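Morning. Coffee machine broken again, so started the prediction first thing and wrote up yesterday's gels while waiting. Chain of 506 residues, entered below exactly as on the submission form.
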Amino acid sequence: MLQSDPTVFARAVETARLPRAHTLIDGIFVDGGGQIFSDVFPATGTQIAEVRSSSPGQVSDAVSAARQAFPAWADSSATTRAAILDRAADTMLRDMDRLTALVTLDNGKTSPEASFDVVSSTSLTKSAAGWASRMRGSTLPLGDGYVEMTWREPVGVVAIFMPFNAPLMFCAMKIAAAIAMGNTVVVKSPEKSPLAAIAFAEYLVEAGLPNGVVNIVQGFADVGTALVSSPEVDMVSFTGSSTVGARVGSDSVAGLKRVLLELGGKSANIIFDDAPFDSAVEGSVGAIFRNSGQRCFSGSRILVQENIADRFIESLVAKTRSLRVGDPFDPNIDIGSLITAQDVSRVRSIVRDAEEAGAKVLCGGDSPTGATPESGYFLPTVIDVGDLTDLAILREETFGPVVTVQRFTDTNHAIDIANTSEYGLAGGCWTSDLAKALTVARRIETGYFWINSYAGAAGPESTIGGRKSSGFGTEKGEDGMLAYTAIKTVIMSESSTGTVIPMGGR
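Came back before lunch.
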């Protein structure tokens, strides 16, 4: 039977020191004034917190607080901003056990995956701190007694939306970057995983962040709509599904706001016949099944060269069947749970539709024996689609532990299949021919690509951004910091008495 150890669960709840108030406005942690919803441990459906949505008035107050705090924060020194972020990151790292337990309870991912999120969050926060004092403009002598200067200035108030799958990491990626550049923010916490954002804010407040610089609101689509439509919001930074992101982007542009969208993916992981075989199998398993497949850049479409396809699929299925699904706090477990029981039903339906259309489910496809209806457990699943090409599962993001396998003949065929997707977030290939690998990397229409690896070594400075339906804009690294700035060009006369341009020009 799949069940969590109640003693381990109770100890985790104690260690996590779950936040009691879930809305932050102008430096004060308060209860929301809207509807109550439950935050549950996804593996069992057990409630861990009762959360109140932020009321419309609180959302408005949060935006106003950010607006009022903006001038002083924008004028603060880069050294001050960096010091606050560094202190927060150091405290988070010392609180590794607390945050690991909180992320696992809030999200259902395994403890090692949660620990990785905590380390990534501290690295991203420290990266943002470093960029606060390294962001420079330029100067250019124009001749005739003029000098041109470019300055990087904060955009203003940024509304931030993050997904449920790694909310602590996205807090660091988005919040830390935005405030490092001098912006103030209002964050809509994901309703499926609402605790990480408020916990992240606790560390910033403890580190000395001024009131109003970071504000956290809770709730559903109405809260998000209020933020996007607010005339006091200058920029929207959204990570989530392409369907919702398209609507957010359209509404943001209609309000003449800057917008950054990091959306869904249906990434191709290409296995050539000269690939390092064992590494390709192992890497492909990790590419899709980490975090129960709930990653936008998961390698959810395996493309394998036809002359090694049977051997590769046999090894892939054997490795997949060896993965252990269960209690995320169990150190012997490989895969935790999906975020909700409803997501289990959604993924099960996607698999069933593919099977009814003629695809062959080679392993998985349902919840493991002993899983309760309330749990998010779902077996890792491999589906051989054969010659079928017009399947929803090949087009639509599954966001679960499900991978499809397609065969290709040669390099051009592999590239054509990979690029048929409307998405363009990530991808990868495995081959001993590095010239071929670089050719594939150039021609695949994605913003991120791995060679002889998948999702490896993506550090805090590794810029990521999507193409096509995967969105636009960049995050992380210098380009990611620049996304939260506006450029200003200043032209100065070198004459202390000024230079007058006569009528008709010069």
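The two ends are 85 Å apart (CA to CA). Going to sketch it on the whiteboard this afternoon.
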